[in-house]
Amino acid sequence: MEHFMSAAFANKRSFGLAAILLGSAFFGIGGTVLEWLHTNRHFDLGGLVPLRLIPSGLLLLLYLRLRGHDLWAIWKDRYSRSGIVAYGIGGILGMQFSFMQTVENGSAVTATLFQFLGPALIAVYIAWKSRRAPFLTEWSSFLIALAGIVLVLTNGVFGETVFSKAGVLWGVCTAFAFAFYTVYPVRLLDRWGALLCSGWGMLIGGVFYSGVSMLLPGAAWFPSGRFDAVSLVLIAFVIVFGTACAFTLCAASLKVLSPTVAGILSGMEPLAAVATTVLWLMKPFGMWQTAGAIFIVASTVLLSAKPTEGLPRQTRNNPSPSNSTVRTGL
Predict the structure, then answer these.
(1) Per-residue pLDDT averaged across 4-29, rounded?
(2) CA 129, CA 132: separation in Å to the nearest integer?
């Protein structure tokens, strides 16, 4: 019996490790696919936001329904109703739109790495909210992440940047959006679970974006670009694997892995983004940029290894990390 239990635990842990690595890789590759669609098929990535969120949300809700979950229970509670709407619009949609704009004006790697600034911002915010000075771990994480983003943006040539000002601005927005959608829905996630909140949040965010875009002149409610067999397959990959499957795998991993382990292994996301950018898009990634990427991921690992007191216990599959910071790209 003891041998059987040990084997079962080992198999569950192996599954958890594989799930977080694969889910994080899907997130990273999904960003690179979006960059390819923008560069080679001239897609307006803003228009892809609802096309990514609505089907992905429906897939998550369908998955939960098939597993016997009550999808409508969250709407029967007044606090949860307003909370899931705010999370869908301000959290998931805000995060997705700023991420897409960073990819469009910068690169997938830049957008992914700016996300990794989120945990450091959250740590500083928690310190401010708690009316105390940041702990040494928090200050160290923030400064390491800041140094890393400077190296990524300048490639070691200070005073210059290898990305447009718009790309940098949207990257900063991505970091703050990531921090918001990690901190805001803590109570919702604790009560209703990551996948249910993410499914409804994606659906709400996507529908809201489409509705507003239809009312605004010149706004893209449907993506403009060259639709062909390749682009359709890649869009389907982003929806199915780069969003729905990635969320589900990361959520499943946290049932058997500690937040610390999951947070550290989520570093696979920027690794996958860098690898596919260099090998597939054939774009260079300089030595100093690589060092900066390592700094940014290291800042997340530091917070994961030494969790900040007061950080929300939430994960990216919810969709993002908490004190462990299982990232998210969404």
Answers:
(1) 77
(2) 8
pLDDT tens-place string over residues 73-121: 999 998 899 999 999 999 999 999 999 999 999 899 999 989 888 888 8
The shares of helix, strand and coil residues in the chain, as percent rounded to the nearest 5, are 75, 0, 25
Residue 307, token pair as written in the block: 């969790």
Question: Comparing C-alpha atoms, which of 258, 208, 159 is closest to residue 54?
Answer: 208
- Cα–Cα distance measured from residue 13 to residue 258, given in angstroms and rounded to the nearest whole number: 10
Q: Quick one: CA dihedral 153, 155, 159, 161, positive or negative?
A: negative
For 181-217, how does the pLDDT look when each residue is reduced to its tens digit (9 = 90+)?
A: 888 888 898 899 889 999 999 999 999 999 888 887 6
The owner of tokens 């005073």 is 159
Q: Are 92 and 50 in contact (CB under 8 A)?
A: no
pTM of whole model > 0.85?
no
What would the 3-class secondary structure string for 120-176 be?
HHHHHHHHHHCCCCCCHHHHHHHHHHHHHHHHHHHCCCCCCCCCCHHHHHHHHHHHH
CB distance 327 to 286 below 8 Å: no
Amino acid at residue number 19 = A
Q: Is the dihedral of CA 156, 157, 158, 164 positive or negative?
A: negative
Rounded distance, CA 126 to CA 227, Å?
45
| Maximum average pLDDT range among 15-19, 94-98, 132-136, 211-215 | 94-98
**pLDDT over 60 at 316, yes or no:** no
Q: How far is CA 30 from the centre of its chain?
A: 11
Which residue, chain included where needed, has tokens 């109570």? Answer: 187
